[in-house]
TrEMBL record:
Keywords: Oxidoreductase. One of its GO terms (molecular function) is nucleotide binding. Belongs to the Gfo/Idh/MocA family. This is Predicted dehydrogenase.
Length: 348
């Protein structure tokens, strides 16, 4: 039996460079707990052969293909990391699964529950590994934050606030401003706010109330949402493409009955402070733990190592970022879009 995975990357754009950095880091032995030899940098496929060759040379992949179909048809490819804009994930995921490849697909895997269901059904039918690449789920600092919460350091969680706001330059070709590519803040950034809230509130059923949404160039440029969980936790978040983060970071605060945790860049955090109130009333507090968990490479190595190990062990679904979690995420985004009466052109 093979003791390594021949990885391929489909669509060598911005995020693919980050994953390639992580894969090279694992190969070079920078991530403790996984033997770098388990990862083979096998192939890259782009719609443009030159782009594929350039990327393959830069990141030490053996093969370069000028079409995705060549990748689907190469029997040596074991697993594919899919990194094109969301609207094209469905075609690419189905192409890979039909070609017998395991799949790690960038978030959001599907633009709707219907799209996600087509992916998970085919993965089940073909008995192949499939996971949405929600890297936050594998973040070591988040693991430590969860430990503090489970230990009761901040008491019971009552509120979670998070913000993922950027002010991007306008570019009509950029996927973020293109409704045909399922652009907009919700699917690109809001997904992290929703994931963070659901992860801490145990993915229990919720009600969603979007206090506002601002549309720009046919996509949601800003939205503000409150979620209420069955266990009483209330969360509020904002995500934006046209509003800068005032603090320069993308912070979250988890408020409990006995204290709170401040989380820097919550979706890719390496730094969180655990505060405990000094008295029963009032906001006086002290920092009881500074959580510092620097990435072994750049943060993408954890999900890649997880997928690699699961594939090698013949597992078809992650036990961390399960199908159910992807379903809960997309259901929430579908609900919000329905409230906003917002459809992508390909949904008409
Ligand atoms: N996990 C994270 O931290 C993170 C961060 C950023 C993005 N993402 C996710 O990763 C995905 C890609 O984002 P990105 O910013 O990397 O995208 P991108 O750079 O705009 O595009 C990635 C690649 O997709 C293909 N592509 C671009 N525009 C296309 C179009 N109009 N039609 C068909 N194919 C097109 C191109 O590959 P070819 O060379 O094959 O043409 C391009 O190089 C998105 O789903 C996004 O949500 C995740």
């Amino acid at each position: 039996m093979k003791n390594y995975v021949n990885w391929a990357i489909l669509a060598p754009g911005r995020i693919a460079n980050s994953m390639a950095t992580a894969m090279n880091g694992i190969k070079d032995g920078k991530l403790p707990g996984i033997n770098g030899d388990k990862i083979h940098l096998y192939a890259v496929a782009s719609r443009n052969l030159e782009r594929a060759k350039e990327f393959a040379d830069k990141w030490y992949f053996e093969k370069a293909y000028g079409s995705y179909e060549e990748l689907y048809n190469d029997p040596e490819v074991d697993a594919v990391y899919i990194a094109n804009p969301h609207a094209f994930h469905l075609d690419s995921v189905l192409g890979c699964l039909n070609g017998g490849k395991h799949v790690l697909c960038e978030k959001p895997a599907g633009c709707s529950r219907d799209q996600l269901d087509k992916m998970t059904s085919l993965a089940r039918e073909k008995n192949l590994f499939f996971m949405e690449a929600m890297w936050t789920a594998f973040n070591p600092c988040i693991r430590e934050i969860k430990k503090e919460i489970a230990a009761g350091t901040i008491g019971n969680i009552i509120n979670i606030d998070s913000r993922f706001c950027n002010r991007n330059p306008y570019d009509s070709d950029d996927r973020n401003y293109d409704p045909r590519q399922a652009g907009g803040a919700l699917l690109d950034l809001g997904i992290y706010n929703i994931y963070f809230a659901m992860m801490l509130a145990d993915f229990s059923p919720i009600t969603a109330e979007s206090s506002a949404v601002r549309m720009l160039k046919g996509v949601d440029a800003w939205n503000s949402v409150n979620l209420t969980f069955e266990n009483g936790i209330v969360t509020s978040f904002q995500d934006a493409m046209d509003v800068p983060s005032t603090t320069g970071t993308h912070d979250a605060v988890i408020y409990g009955t006995k204290g709170f945790i401040t989380v820097e860049n919550f979706f890719c955090t390496q730094k969180a402070d655990v505060h405990v109130y000094k008295n029963t009333w009032g906001s006086d507090n002290e920092v009881v733990r500074e959580i510092r968990e620097p990435f072994a490479v750049n943060g993408y190595e954890y999900e890649c190592a997880h997928a690699t190990e699961f594939i090698l062990n013949g597992r078809t679904e992650s036990d961390v970022h399960t199908f159910k979690k992807s379903e809960d995420l997309i259901d929430m985004m579908d609900t919000l879009r329905k409230d906003w009466n917002f459809k992508y052109p390909f949904e008409d």
